[in-house]
Amino acid sequence: METDTNPRQHPQHRAKTRSRISAACVRCQKRKIRCDGRIPGCSTCQKARVNCVDGGASRDISRSYINDLESRVAWLESVVRGHAPGVSLDGEQNHQHTVNGARTVESPRSLEEAATAITTSRGYSKDDTSLRDVTDQIGLVSVNGADLRYLGPILGTPRGLPSDLRHAQWLSQTYFQSVHLQFPFLHEPTHMETVRKLHDGVDAGPACRFRIFMVLAISATIRSWQAKVLLSAEGYCASAVAHMDSLFGRPSLSGVQCILLLQVYTINNPSSGLSLWTLHYHCLASILELGLQHNVQGSHLPVFEQKMRTRVFWCVYTVDRVLSTLLGRQIGLMDEQCELRVRNTLINMSSAIHLFKLSKFNAEIKCVLYCVGQLYGLYTQPAITDIENWQANVIHRFRQWNTDSYVTGMLYYSWISTHLLFLCVIKMFYCVWVPNGVADEVDFDDLTRALKPASDVLSATG
């Protein structure tokens, strides 16, 4: 039986085409509302003042992506014109060609000249071997003078010290007002004095330069978060790395401080690419080789060095507990192997002391959690047989610690009376200074005499 395949008997109906607008954005799709598809953002997203993200094939890409790129290119061209006015930025010189099936981009001579001009304006030359040394030593730490271990890439153009001494001191104060309160492994007066010496042109050695540049890098990272501005933390870090190969030939207290600075920088700047875990175990190896876990009080070492050894040990001890918690791993330094001493010179560092105590609790909890055997040597703590009793004991010690941390009963007046008096003084200041014209009519001496009794009472209450 033949099949009739005459197309005239079976006419084909052409599919009716209709124009279709671009896919709705992600926000409109979630809310199931009509999207007008405008660029760089639909009217709904513009009214809500949110970023309009395309919901089509190019999902998760902002519709203002092209506009942002064009603005970025225009800004870069303005930078090139500012540094090298004679550079031609015509698009005719930029062309692409294919060689052996590989796509390559030919850089015009004008752009090479622009790069040379920008590099020269920043104070670097092609013959500067220090930059090549940085690229050769980037990410490497020498533990015993022969073993170079890769720690990760450090991106950034090396940057010198700030030309203004006040700017360098301002950045350094940021470190000592934030990081130093938790990890006091540096000596603030010595550090600030070294900053002044380097600014005056006095050579302080590679270890001091490394510490100063790393402190600036950490401070620049913190200030960038606070002020929402770019302060080139990577540039300071790259300048510090240039001195790294001369620091780790043999373990030293300065070397441990430098590794701790790298760890703090990596914690605050995860995009640096450094291996935090590798850095930490280099630090632990130096701690054990230097014997910082032992108390050397009364030895031939100077008192200042004994203090710094204690502070550095506790900082490494605390970082070990913090990293083991963050990364979900076992602790690297057992309490049974260390003399957990706190010198009297650390009493004024109350925040760090509490963090050290918390690290001891952390270590005890982890030792119980990661316990895998029932047989213990004579040098270890007794096994925990009653978990519930141990948990109750830990909670009791936490509460006792909280009770002992605060001093009560030191005010002659009650807290409520002092607080009410303080609010009354604030209210008087508000009534005088906030309303327009009142401050001009009030005599300053009369106001001072009126507030003197309140000031005396507040001073008497402590």
TrEMBL record:
All copies of domain Zn(2)-C6 fungal-type, residue ranges: 24-54
Q: InterPro entries of this UniProt entry?
A: XnlR_reg_dom (IPR007219), Yeast_MetPath_Reg (IPR052202), Zn2-C6_fun-type_DNA-bd_sf (IPR036864), Zn2Cys6_DnaBD (IPR001138)
Q: What is its main location?
A: nucleus
Q: Which UniProt keywords apply?
A: DNA-binding, Metal-binding, Nucleus, Transcription, Transcription regulation, Zinc
Q: What is this protein called?
A: Zn(2)-C6 fungal-type domain-containing protein
Task: Extract the Pfam families matched here.
Answer: Fungal_trans, Zn_clus
GO biological process, any: positive regulation of transcription by RNA polymerase II
Could you tell me one molecular function GO term of this UniProt entry? zinc ion binding
Subcellular localization(s) per the UniProt record: Nucleus
Question: Which Gene3D superfamilies is this protein grouped with?
Answer: Zn(2)-C6 fungal-type DNA-binding domain
UniProt superkingdom: Eukaryota
